[in-house]
Amino acid sequence: MAASRLKVIRSQEFERKARHFFPPGGSADGKPSYELFGDTVLKGIEFSFARTFDDLPVAQPGLDAIRAVTTQSSPLFPPLVAFGLRVAEDTVELIDMEVDETFWDRM
After folding, report:
1. Does 83 score more than 70 pLDDT?
2. Counting beta carbons within 10 angstroms of the beta carbon of residue 81, is it exposed (0 to 12), middle (13 to 18) or buried (19 or more)?
3. What percent of the chain is modeled with pLDDT above 70?
4. Do residues 91 and 6 make contact, with C-beta atoms less than 8 angstroms apart?
5. Residue 59 DSSP SS3
6. Measured between alpha carbons, how far is residue 90 from residues 24, 33, 54, 72 in Å?
7. Which residue of 14, 22, 52, 106 could cross-link 37, Cys pair, CB 3.0 to 4.6 Å?
8. Beta bridge partners of residue 96, listed in sequence order
9. What contacts 38, CB < 8 A, 6 or more positions away?
10. What is the maximal distance between C-alpha atoms in the chain?
């Protein structure tokens, strides 16, 4: 039997932050585009929430409905943490994200 897969949706706040950190079309100062983020890092985040929600770390003790996915840095993206809230038995909503904006400055 295949593992169950949760539906993953994005809150307006998550979308707003993602587009702030990764502007549509990229930016003159070198930030990667939202489109590239969506085709790469975001797909991995959504896959993790859809397939392994119950195995992910709890974002804050006592709030088991909110879990976190942490990504590693890549040549284009800094490390980040995405937070997902189980809003229904079969649905997780991406509610927030934190991006390590100082990562490239430390390299």
Report:
1. yes
2. middle
3. 95
4. yes
5. coil
6. 30, 30, 12, 27
7. 22
8. 83
9. none
10. 48
